Every structure is written in C-alpha cells, then in structure tokens.
Amino acid sequence: MPAETVLLLPGTASDEVFVRSVFTEPLSQVGAVLSAPRVRTLGERLTALENAPASHPIVVGGVSLGAHVAARWAVANPDRCAGLVLALPAWTGAPDEAPAALAAKVSAQIVRTQGVTTALAGTTGWLRDELTRAWHGYGDQLVPHLEEAAESLAPTLEELKSLDVPTGIVGCTDDPVHPIAVARAWAEAIPRAVLVTTTLDAYPHALGRAVQAWQQAR
C-alpha cells in the first residue's frame, strides 16, 4: 500500500522550507509523506488544495494561516478531506483584533515604509533566520500578502463542528501571537480532535506534535 500523503500549508509570510523542516520527520515516523507546495498568496494556498488528487480523500493542514485555509477548505469539501493536521490556529472567524492579524498589519506597514531589515530588527535566533529567508523569498508579494492575511477569515466554531474527521492540533501555552485559547476552542469544536501543547522554548520542531495528535485522533 502506498504511503499516505499529507498536504500542509505555511503560515503568513512563511514558506514550504519551514513546513518541511518541521513536519517531514514526524510524518515519516507514522508512515506518511509530506506534500509542502510552494505557495505565496492566499489564492495559491487554496489552489494547492483544489489541485490535490481527487481520487480519494486526503489529509490536509498547516501552520497558523495555513491551518485556517486548510480547515475552511475541509468545511467546504467534506467529501475530500480525510483528516486534519493543524498547528497554531491564530483566530476563529473574522480576525478582528487578533494578535497575529495586528502583527501582520504592522509588519506590512514597516516593510513598506522602512524595508524588510527594519521589520525584522526585533527578531532573534531561529525565528529571525526563518523570516529572513522566507520574507526575501516573497519579494514584491510580501506586503500584499501580509495585508491579505491580516484580513482573512478562519472557520467559525459552527463550521469547525462540522469537521467529523481525525484532527490533530498543536497549540502553544505561551505564544501571545497564537493564543492557546484559540487552539483549545478549535479542539473543543471539532468532534474528533486531539489537542497537544508546547511552549516557545520548544519551537519550532515541537509543532510536529500535531502529527502525533492526528494519529491519536484516528
């Protein structure tokens, strides 16, 4: 039997390189294969899901914005989704004043007026390395993408309740940009969800714990 393929999408202004670094090994440990398409816009994220093989239901998911897009796609395509692997959902429904949305707006403004280097001045360590690579990879698409991400919809709690598939969710207990309350609300709403938690100190590879949560939900 061929290995199961799991299609995962990156978060806001992140990229497929980060997704592969986090999820390739955890998926291989459960006999699954990662598909991490190169996407930049919201539209490209959705197109990647729409273009996935339709011969059988597939497992999808992603990080932050990628989790939002994948979950909304699953709501709209229940016959095509076999499961969900979700890391760090950032809000539910409309973004309103969600920290991740506000951060994206602020970043867009700084990049537009002062450049990428200034926008990244406050970051350090692995996060700075990841964002430096990814943001430069977006080129002229970076600011428009940050702005569209900040205004994008996540699924509502009522929509999440319709997702009757095995779902693994990882949330962070001390990440102010991705509040743990959001991950818990998603896990409570999705009927077959398992939530695991991590901390900022364990980032980024601990996000792969969503894979183990997905396996538990199965």
Topology overview:
Blueprint: E1 4-9, H1 16-29, E2 32-35, H2 42-50, E3 58-63, H3 65-76, E4 81-87, H4 99-114, H5 116-119, H6 125-138, H7 142-150, H8 157-160, E5 167-172, H9 180-189, E6 193-198, H10 209-217
Parallel strand pairs: 1-2, 1-3, 3-4, 4-5, 5-6
Which short descriptors sum up this protein?
alpha/beta; 10 helices; globular; 2 domains; Rossmann fold; 6-stranded parallel beta sheet; 218 residues
Architecture overview:
- By secondary structure, this protein is of the alpha/beta class.
- The protein folds into 2 domains: 4-93 and 155-217, Rossmann fold (3-Layer(aba) Sandwich); 99-148, no CATH class.
- Helices cover 46% and strands 16% of the residues.
- It has a 6-stranded parallel beta sheet, with helices on both faces.
- Helix 1 (16-29) links the parallel strand 1 (4-9) and strand 2.
- The radius of gyration is 16 Å and the shape is globular.
- The two termini are 18 Å apart.
- 44% of the residues are buried.
